[in-house]
Design goal:
With 289 residues, this protein is an all-alpha fold. Helices cover 75% and strands 0% of the residues. It has two domains: 136 residues, Ammonium transporter fold, CATH 1.10.3430.10; 130 residues, Ammonium transporter AmtB like domains (Ammonium transporter fold), CATH 1.10.3430.10. The chain is built from 14 helices and no strands. The N and C termini lie far apart (57 Å).
Length: 289
């Protein structure tokens, strides 16, 4: 009986971890989580390890501190820490301090997420954004030797046709097309409508970026599309109002991202958070009429 109980507890934990991964793109599906992890590991083994460390740390914390069970089961405490784990290995070298920062950042982002869940305020990936900004500031001040030198990415003609898929990839810091395909499929198996909305959002902001004369290399790599992917998924649906809300959210996120780019600010998914808040405000105002 104890063996069965242990196996059951282990299964529940794995489900929570995988759901936490899938929640990065607002899904709740274990296979989606597996595909997301596969896409990350395809791009970088270290980033994959960072994602796993982040989501396991936060899920364990949620269980130990007895956070809301339903929210824990859904993976709501796992997605921001998973993103923190990947982000640390994007900006910093895989050193001892980096892994420590992944663990610390995962704990802090889960605690912030729990606070917002308690007050019922939808903040999406804001805990990830705040924690990552804070860690990068700390590292710049006290551990500058940890930062990696950003390699020059050579963009070829094929990149201009695959930028929507790269936009999917960039949601979790992956710039290769294969990771983007795996992420798209991960969303598609759980919600085909959401997946197609995300693709349309990536195309829309890529087009806007061309109109605004933004760097073509960044457009081709999906760097002006990933926030739109998330905004589109957040408001995806089969009603006309869903399209209106998605477009509003995407446009706001693009404008926020544009100004952050102009001032050389680390965008992460803050434009998505701002755009989604804008969409939610519009949704509430339409309900009152």
């Amino acid at each position: 009986m104890k063996i069965f109980s242990f196996a059951q507890d282990k299964s529940f934990f794995i489900n929570r971890v995988l759901n936490g991964m899938s929640q990065i793109m607002l899904q709740e599906n274990r296979l989606t989580g597996i595909l997301f992890l596969s896409g990350i590991f395809y791009g970088s083994i270290f980033m994959g390890i960072g994602a796993i460390l982040g989501v396991i740390t936060s899920t364990t914390l949620a269980q130990v501190l007895k956070f809301d069970k339903d929210e824990t089961d859904k993976g709501m405490y796992g997605f921001s820490p998973a993103l923190v784990g990947v982000a640390m290995l994007v900006f910093l070298k895989p050193a001892v301090w980096t892994w420590a920062l992944v663990a610390i950042g995962s704990v802090v982002s889960a605690l912030i997420q729990n606070l917002f869940i308690k007050i019922k305020l939808p903040v999406f990936t804001l805990p990830f954004v705040l924690v990552t900004w804070g860690i990068l500031f700390f590292a710049k001040m006290y551990l500058p030797e940890l930062f990696v030198e950003t390699p020059l990415t050579i963009v070829n003609d094929s990149h201009y046709f695959t930028f929507p898929l790269r936009g999917y990839g960039q949601v979790i810091f992956q710039e290769n097309t294969m990771s983007g395909i795996l992420f798209f499929l991960g969303v598609f198996i759980n919600s085909p409508v959401s997946a197609l909305y995300g693709l349309a959002g990536a195309v829309l902001t890529g087009t806007l970026a061309v109109v605004f004369l933004l760097p073509t290399s960044d457009i081709a790599l999906g760097l002006f599309s990933y926030n739109a992917v998330l905004c589109a998924i957040a408001f995806s649906g089969t009603k006309k109002i869903d399209g209106v809300l998605a477009f509003t959210s995407i446009f706001i996120s693009f404008i926020v991202g544009f100004f952050m780019f102009q001032y050389n600010l680390t965008r992460l998914t803050f434009p998505f958070v701002a755009g989604t808040w804008g969409g939610l405000i519009l949704k509430q105002s339409l309900k009152k009429k």
